[in-house]
Specification:
Elements: E1 2-8, H1 13-32, E2 36-41, E3 47-52, H2 56-65, H3 67-70, E4 75-82
Antiparallel strand pairs: 1-3, 1-4, 2-3
Length: 89
Amino acid sequence: MLVVELAFTPTSTPERLAARPAHREALARLHAEGKLFAAGPWADDRGALLVFAVERAGLEEILGADPYYRSTPGVEVRAIREWVPIVGG
């Protein structure tokens, strides 16, 4: 599994919120396809965590296809890390 950590900057909130419905629709589709395990914002809305059940090449394709990650002001991919769950994954 791969974990993606996003950071949001407060100055871009209108653009980010405008892009969010299409982004969340894409997340729902990825979840239904079994490619996304879980996703959601931090409680303080300063970022989000996404857990993907794909290989690195598949993740790059997903990130490239969703404008939220590559062209929405104020959305920054802070980290991509491999995660090896012991329970629940």
